[in-house]
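hi! just following up on the protien thing from before. the input was this:
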Amino acid sequence: MKQLVICVVTLFAVGLFSNCLSAQDLKSLGEKVKHLERLSPVERDRLDRNIQSYRTLTSDQKAMYRQLYEELNKDRLQGGVLFNLLETYNQWLQTLSPTQRDQLQNESNEGRKIALIRQFMDEQDRQAKEEHDRLVKEEQEASRNSNNSNTINKSTNSESAFNIRQINPVRELRLDKRELEAVMRVIYDDLPADKRPKEFESVEPHEFPALIRESADLSINPEEWPSQPLLKKMSEKLPQKKVQIISTLAKWGFGEREIAVQIILGGVMRQAQETVIKPTENDRKATLEGLKPIERKNYDLAPDDKKIGFLNHKFLEKKGDASFLRMQETRQKVMELFEKLNVTPPPQFQRFSKKR
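and the predicted 3d structure came back as:
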């Protein structure tokens, strides 16, 4: 039996009957023809070479392979122990490089062929162990870095801690209008009935800071707002992808509360900005021509990507548009909330801080 197994393994290493065996389940000649037609160019080339190799065999060798084929068929009817072994071997062949498969196929000596098989298996075991050790090492290093990051984030210097953080939650987790309204609805519903100013549907974006302040004032400590129960309710209103990002950031040492405050207040400020009228090109041109000397100097010194924003701001400031005034008021209230909740504003908001 052992000799038969070695012979079969050797036969499959040469590859003479790998295609024949895979076609055994085909029940008719027509199905076999269709199977051959579906072969890729590489598979057809391999089959042609196998046929050529078979034709070079002696009569005794061909008879041996026919007998082996009959034994395999008989084995399948009796449980397929050998057939399953060959299937496993054939799958293993697919894990080898093309060069290694060619080495096996071109090796005619049975002993050297088996030695090659053992050599390739040993190489695979060694590579698998090296890969395992590498992954374990990377995981250990990541764990050490995470612990170091957690230690840094607990520093009393919140500004320094924030600078270490490479991910900006307001940018990565930006809330759109629908998401912001869903979160604000949770905050509104969490307020006692007598603390709700009016129906939520009537609350304007520039009134959101007042709702947040009311909610924070009702908590035991505003610097711990939002509480975990409230934070959980708000998370349920966010898309799963954003919840996963927040969870991942938390594992890296970022505070879930801090992230929540930043994305909520960031969303409030952005919604207020979107209600402001958009100056046209002609508006900006007229504003540029009407700038005072000091304003013109500031405009000329501004980076190119800031010039349009500079003119938009000057246009709205001089126009005294109500939406612009509300936006400025909202921005001021948002910055006050960052201070009240003891959360460091993201970099793009820090220029609005009074502590600059």
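Residues 110-153 form the longest helix (44 residues).
Residues 1-26, 151-170 have pLDDT under 50 and may be disordered.
cheers
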